Amino acid sequence: MKTICLMPRRHDVSRAAFRDYYERRHSKLALRWFHFDKYVRNHLTDDAGEPGFDCYSEFWTSNPEKGAGLMSGPVGDTMREDERQFTDQPMIRPALSEEKLVSGPPRGTETGVPHLLLLLVRDGGSDTGLGEWLAGIRCTRVVLDLLSTMDPARPIAYQAGALLWDPPALLPEAPAGWTIAHRLKTEAFEYTPEEMAAMKDVVS
Fold it and tell me: Going by CATH, does the domain composed of 2-198 fall within 3.40.50.300?
C-alpha cells in the first residue's frame, strides 16, 4: 500500500529550516516505530514557488493496519506533537496512491536527486490518457500517482501527481480533461532499507 502526504511548513519556519528538521529529526523519529518498505521525502527547492506545501512525502507499507494502530495511541501523540514543531499541521493533506511506473527503470534508493513534480486536476480526463501523455515526454523515468482522498476531513485538491526524472525544459500541453495545477522542482531524500532498520528504537 502506498500513501502520500502534502506536508506544509509552519508559517514562522523557513523552507530550509523545515527541511532540516524533517530530515534531522522527524523522519528518524517515525522510523523508530513505523516499518516502511520505502519512504521518500520530495522537498520543494527554494525556486519551486508556494503551492501551500513544502514536501511531497511518499510512504510504502505492507502492514497499514499496524501503522494505524500505532497512530491511535501514545506513538501517534508523540508524532503529532513533533509535527507541530515544524509543520502547519491542520493543512497536512494525506492521500491514497495507486502508483504506476510510466516509463524508465524501476526506482532505486535516492538522496539529493532532483525531480519535477506535476500536480494535476481532473476535468473529465481518463487515467489512460494521462498515462499516455506522460509516456510521450522524454524523461529518464516517469512515475504517476493516481490520488484519492484518505481523510474526508482533509480532502486533497489533486487527482494525480507525477514525478519526472530529467524532464525537458518545455512540456507538451496537458492532455484533454486534465489541468496542471503546479509544476514544482523537488529534491528527493530517502534511507536505504539497512538505514531504516538501524533506526528502530534508537532515536534519542
Answer: no
